[in-house]
Amino acid sequence: MADPFPSVAELAAEESELQFGSFTNDDAWELGSALVAAGRAENAPVQIEIARNGHRLFSAALPGATPDNVSWIERKSRVVHRFGHSSLLVGQASRERGTSFEAEFGLDPARYAAHGGAFPLLVRDVGPVGVVAVSGLPQLADHRMVVDALRARGARP
Predict the structure, then answer these.
(1) Distances 74 to 45, 51, 77, 80, 87 between C-alpha atoms, Å
(2) Which of 1, 26, 102, 136 is the most exposed place for a label (fewest CB within 10 A)?
(3) SS3 of 107, please?
(4) Prediction pTM value
(5) Does domain 8-152 have CATH number 3.40.50.720?
(6) Residue 49: beta bridge partners?
(7) Do the beta carbons of residue 114 and residue 127 sit within 8 Å?
(8) What single-letter DSSP state applies at residue 57?
(9) Residue from 146, 97, 144 nearest 121 by CA
(10) Which tens digit of pLDDT belongs to each residue from 65-94?
(11) How far apart are CA 63 and CA 140, in angstroms?
């Protein structure tokens, strides 16, 4: 059976593609608003968070989102902060090495979740400056929602 997840190479290519020249509070508002619009269009029960340098710039809970989604965002975002890559890429890297994130790193699963949905906010020639995260859908759908919004907002190399 084929792995249903994109490869590490494909996920790394997304990160190379989806970078900003800068990332301001206004950019966070526009990106967050685009995610809310996408979530509403799909009737998705998601929580959305955007933070830069530890400062929460945007937060929204659509109908059906729960406090558990906030916990998932915190756990997935910790993975992005620690490893500098999307939470899906980090989990997929472990799978491609024939193990699991939990077994490979031994991090507390109550604090870290290498599941899709958290993506680094990358500024060209700077690196990661924050995280955009979605929780409430299956992990691949969470990841795709973020990637689609980044593409639509014009994140470009």
Answers:
(1) 17, 11, 5, 10, 11
(2) 1
(3) coil
(4) 0.94
(5) no
(6) 59, 133
(7) no
(8) E
(9) 146
(10) 999 999 999 999 999 999 999 999 999 999
(11) 20
DSSP-assigned beta bridge partners for residue 61? 47
- Paired tokens of 16: 């190379």
What is the torsion angle, in degrees rounded to the nearest 10, for the CA atoms of residue 28, residue 32, residue 35 and residue 37? -130
DSSP 125: T
User: Tokens 């700077």 appear where?
Assistant: 126
What residue ranges do the domains of the chain occupy? 8-152
CA angle, 78 as apex, 114 and 62 as ends, to 5°? Answer: 80
Q: What is the DSSP code string of 36-69?
A: HHHHHHTT---EEEEEETTEEEEEEE-TT--HHH
Please, which pLDDT band fits residue 2 given cuts at 50, 70 and 90?
A: low
Q: Decide if 94 contacts 101 (C-beta within 8 A).
A: yes
pLDDT, one tens digit per residue, over 101-155 is 999 999 999 999 999 999 999 999 999 999 999 999 999 999 999 999 999 976 5
Between helices 8-17 and 87-96, what is the axis angle to 10°?
150
